[in-house]
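Contributing new records

If you add data, match the layout below exactly. Sequence lines come first and carry their own label; structure lines follow with theirs. Keep one chain per record. Anything else will be rejected by the validation script.
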Amino acid sequence: MCVVCGCSATGAIEGSAPVLTPQTGDLHFGAGTARVSVPGMTQERAIKLEADVLGANKLVANQNRTHFASHGVTAYNLVSSPGSGKTTLLCATIEALKQRAPQIRLAVIEGDQQTSHDADRIRATGVPAIQVNTGKGCHLDAPMVAAAFARLDLHAHSHGHPHAHPHTHTHTHGEPHDPHHPHDDLHAHPHDHDHTHPHDHAHPAPEALLFIENVGNLVCPAMWDLGERAKVAILSVTEGEDKPLKYPDMFAAAKLMVLTKTDLLPHLNFDMARCKAYARRVNPGIEIIELSANTGEGMQTWLDWLLDAPVQDAKSTPPTALQDRIQQLEAELAQLKALQT
């Protein structure tokens, strides 16, 4: 994973030898304890670094989660490979929400390595957007999202709930401390029903929606909690039905898979049933929606999902996949230390 890149050392490289498939000669460098091979870094060091970095990010993500809740904001982390149609889907979603639920406040945080092209497209719809350029970074992290959220109108809007307990908020990227917004741990409400029929909207609609469009990458953003209610994996039918198996961490971390560009299906050799089966093999509980942002087919089901979801509140928890990964890293690190004693 990207959290362990950038380090080098001389001498033997412990734990970096790949697993060889005898029949084909294929090499698997992710079969070690750390599930990653970094030149000059032992498996133990890789595990410790990943646990430390993800753990520090989780602290800020929990603060984000409480901060969003205090402003009546439900946040979604949109993840995909480049070119899946995230921004096109967002623009279409914004226009559809303006018609269907004009009372809901909207905002977008855009993540890319460079340019403000996508944020400019969002701003053209009349919805506020903040571009976050990561430079050489391949994903957004929780401090980046905190800095961007502080500059959005959703942050300036008073939700009307008092902040009962003072809390020291850890800011990065030059962000000033704001003593008026405490941050507590939250607990998530599961959303387990299948989207094969219209919703009856058992939950109140969210007051505000924050869409976080992550950097186009099906690998690194998988384990980075931003404080979102859920990750939404967007997969276009032009990419191939085997992506959930090739990039399992991303689809395991996602609550919903949105299959986009379905208007192109007549021109493609894409097996929809197989793609869904692959996604459910990786994540049996994943929900799936098919849509075309260009034709509007499936858009109402997507809006149903957004509007029917429980409002993010002060009882939310970080995503289970991230919690599991951190616990796994801590256990593996303890095991490696025990073997050395």
